[in-house]
């Protein structure tokens, strides 16, 4: 028993959970990043970032005088890219190729720019999103197993609580790193300059300034996580019972992840709209020194969006978010579950061989 004490209730160790979640994050990034690269290129072609945009032409209902930065999402994390009047954009955005549609964009990008261009922006994803996902998924499994051991294992709210707490912890840990990454990306700072920049920010506004933008992120991600895991466990159990499976298969996890991700994305969309607006404002302040007015609270900002664009404004970008979140959640959770199953079998074989 002593040699197996590090193995958790799921039959794998925390390190193995980290490896499984890291692999899932890597596969998700590899699959979803090309979709977002194409989406941004098509969006930029329709309305160049250097031109004045109206609320109607921006999918997230964000009203800015000019595009100073744009949000890049890959299914795992959001990233800000600087685009100051078209001069500070990344090279893959400024490429002049004209596209007639999504498939045409894929073909022309590969033909004229090389297949690697479809994974533009992947390095910051791997640096930021993979560690965040490892912390998040491992914490969820550990918390869920702990709550199951302390309470009735049939209580359905355990995934909801574990998902919310795990996401809260991951957001809190990663938030300062995201702010640092934005500073480095926008101003091309050396590590020495970055250290001085952070020290001056802390001296002026205190340590809490490193968590600027934490509130809106938590309001979106924590409810999403709670709903996602709650629905995922329910849908997975239902699918297993329908197909008379003793254990969820890869396709069962894939379907449950897509369904639960879609439901959570739709229900938390208003918070996503608010969070995106706040993130763009933060990007303007951090990257190009623009003093953007900041709303005093998320609730007031939601009221302002509703007054300007109606209730539909709070659900702006419905289809793009669902189209991205559903496959990202499906790929991530199915790969993660597959990795856990692999390690469970490996551990069982080791135990049998040691007898």
Automatic annotation (TrEMBL):
Location(s), subcellular: Mitochondrion inner membrane
One Gene Ontology term of the molecular function aspect: glutathione transmembrane transporter activity
Taxonomic source organism: Anolis carolinensis (Green anole)
Protein name per Swiss-Prot or TrEMBL: Mitochondrial glutathione transporter SLC25A39
Keywords, ordered alphabetically: 2Fe-2S, Heme biosynthesis, Iron, Iron-sulfur, Membrane, Metal-binding, Mitochondrion, Mitochondrion inner membrane, Repeat, Transmembrane, Transmembrane helix, Transport
Predominant place of localization: mitochondrion
GO biological process: cellular response to glutathione; cellular response to iron ion; glutathione import into mitochondrion; heme biosynthetic process; import into the mitochondrion
Keyword rRNA-binding assigned: no
Membrane-spanning parts: 118-137, 157-177
GO annotation, cellular component aspect: mitochondrial inner membrane; mitochondrion
Membrane topology type: Multi-pass membrane protein
Xref: Gene3D superfamilies: Mitochondrial carrier domain
Catalytic reaction equation(s): glutathione(in) = glutathione(out)
Lineage of origin: Eukaryota, Metazoa, Chordata, Craniata, Vertebrata
Domain of life: Eukaryota
Coiled-coil portions: none
Pfam families cross-referenced by the UniProt entry: Mito_carr
Family (UniProt): Belongs to the mitochondrial carrier (TC 2.A.29) family.
Mapped Solcar repeat ranges: 12-146, 154-238, 248-342
